[in-house]
Amino acid sequence: MGDGSRKWMSREQIRADVEDGMRNAVECAEVPDLTEDDISRIVEIMCEKGRTVSVEPGEEVILTQDGGELKLLNDSGSSSPVLEMSRTAAIQVHERALGMDTFEVAYFDPSTKMVKPVIGMEMAHCQNVMYNTIIPMLYMFMPNIGLYYQPTGPFGNPPDLMREFKIEEAMEAGELAMNAMRDDIVFIGERILSTGMDGLDFDTTASGGDLDFVGSLQAVEELRKTYPDADIQMGMSAESVLGINGMCEYAGQLAAGLYPHQQVKLAEAAGVSTFGPVVNTNSSMSTAWNVARAVTMVKECSKVSKIPLQVNMGMGVGGTPMFETPPIDAVTRADKCMIEIAHVDGL
Amino acid sequence: MAFENETTMLHDALISCKVPDIAKAVQTAKDAGMPADEIINTLGAAMSDVGVLFERGKLFLPHVLSAAAGMKNAMAALDDQLKAGSGSTEAKGVAVMGTVEGDVHDIGKSICSTMLQCAGFEVRDLGRDVPLKNIVEECKNGCNFCGMSALMTTTMTGMKVVIDQLNEAGIRENVTVMVGGAPVTQGYADKIGADIYGESASETTKKATAVAAD
Question: Which domains does chain B have, with CATH numbers?
């Protein structure tokens, strides 16, 4: 199930859930149905007997992870083992022992507002990592406009202001926060790329809604002026962009309410190299339902995208259960469906 | 049905989320003799539709708040008539809301607070990463709803702690506990003894409104 619990289901029930999940995606995101072949294939994958499933040789995709060394070092409520080792060693473990094709460096509190004050330290660390690793290495941080709102930041909190019916003040505060976040993203990005890092990854983009998304896109556009060839990846935080402002636009398109196949077009326009769509898992529904729903949305995203897609597959996204250590049978089935049916370029 | 035209006009005006249009529709309905409580009930039903449209991504937060502002103005404009009749301008209930300790995710909770306020509840939003004892203390100050949100499986356990502490404080019977957030399910809500599980802000608001009406 979406919450990680086990439930016995017949093939017919699985099929029914797959169809229902697909219909839900079609209704929400206004994307096409899956084909009958797609639906049957998802059912087959779900019903495979093995504990884990995989793709055939030659069908493998790029594998990476967005948490950087934090996944081994930190206990951030994400089931990290909290190992005592240096940041560089943790990255080398991912490269050499865990088989990552590309990887990321991340500060312990990887939000834009928290990274800016320690940028000198991060730049030195990035140089050290580049001397000691081989695989493409990106620097990850989260735009996270929320930290620019009070009480953690200087600007008024739009939802709080709106509850007081101070709507104009809320809009103004949101735009000021967006500008500050964008400028800080560019500040960090330019400095990190100057160390020779292969690229940047904006993680959980749009976690603060449409202003977060537009600010990040504007930052990418700005960074491209100085670093036209850098690998700039953008991973989203939710399947639909929340309309906290409701009116902000990018490239003539309203940002609020966009789904993955629409989000990727704005990312392309900004100059993003690789896009990481997200589809949220419903913890009350089955994995079959969630996977079908996720695949339906991502398939359309993949179809319209001109840039590679590295879909977010993890706790609570991409059809994967919302659980600290998601069951491996669910994880591998979700991954296989994404590769075979949604035709993603990476996970 | 009496006042059918006025009902449609009020509904459409609220869905438009334009404060002047809502005020105009209210005045027109009032001039036509539509009872104040019927006007408010019609607007309330339209607010539920606004909530659904918001959940579907067709309307956004400022729209919802504009609609709520329109509704608030309507209640103020009809206050005398409502007080004279059987209608009431009092809050449906008092809701203490917060994201539990250790969890900093609060957009969903903020949206839920907003929807509850729009539905006529007095909301005391404690923010995010709220120490569990603070939630309990605020409930002791007087409330009949307590809403908790969590986005992580490691923090959702705090919800049970709050429920237990409400029991120890002897106020559990007077507080309807609502829980929500991505890792929370109906099953989990039942397990910890919560009264309401809301998969979305509008579902939570609907269920809280139903409880308040009982």
Answer: 4-84 (1.10.1240.10), 94-213 (3.40.50.280)
Interface contact B125-A324, CB threshold 8 A: no
Phi, psi (rounded to 5 degrees) for A28: -70, -50
The pLDDT score that the predictor gives to residue B120 is: 84
pLDDT tens digits for range A145-198: 999 999 899 999 998 898 888 988 999 999 999 999 999 999 999 999 999 999
> CA-CA distance, B15 to A35, in Å (whole number)?
36
Which of A146, A167, A323 has the CB atom closest to B153's CB atom? Answer: A323
Closest to A157 (Cα-Cα) out of A219, A244, A250: A244
Tokens linked to B80: 């005398």
Q: Which domains does chain A have, with CATH numbers?
A: 11-340 (3.20.20)
Dihedral pair phi/psi, residue B180, rounded to 5°:
-165, 175
Q: Which residues of A touch B125 (CB under 8 A)?
A: 160, 163
Q: Is the pTM of this model over 0.80?
A: yes
Candidates B60, B68, B183; nearest CB to A3: B183
The number of helices, as runs of H, and strands, as runs of E, in chain B is 10, 5
Chain-centroid distance of CA B104 in Å reads 21
- The number of C-alpha atoms within 13 Å of A64 and in the hemisphere containing its C-beta is 27
ipTM score for this prediction? 0.76
A42 φ, ψ (degrees, to nearest 5) = -60, -45
Q: Any idea which residue has 């730049």 for tokens?
A: A123
Phi, psi (deg, nearest 5) at residue A10: -80, 165
Q: Which residue of B has its CA nearest to A2?
A: B183
- Long-range own/partner contacts, residues A217-221 (CB < 8 A, 24 or more apart): A217/A250, A217/A266, A217/A267, A217/A269, A217/A270, A217/A272, A218/A182, A218/A250, A218/A270, A219/A143, A219/A181, A219/A182, A219/A185, A219/A186, A219/A189, A220/A267, A220/A270, A220/A271, A220/A272, A221/A270, A221/A271
Q: Which residues of A touch B123 (CB under 8 A)?
A: 163
Q: Is the pLDDT reported for residue B214 higher than 60? A: yes
- The answer, for B101 touching chain A at a CB cutoff of 8 Å, is no
A328: left (phi over 0), alpha (psi -120 to 50) or beta: alpha
Interface contact A7, partner B, CB < 8 A: no
For residue A327, whether the previous peptide bond is cis, meaning omega lies within 30 degrees of 0, is no
Closest CA to B151 of A101, A324, A165: A324
Q: Which A residues in the span 154-173 are in contact with B, Cβ-Cβ below 8 Å?
A: 158-160, 162-163, 165, 167, 170-171
Classify strands A249-250 and A253-254 as parallel, antiparallel or unpaired: antiparallel
Q: Name residue B134's amino acid.
A: N
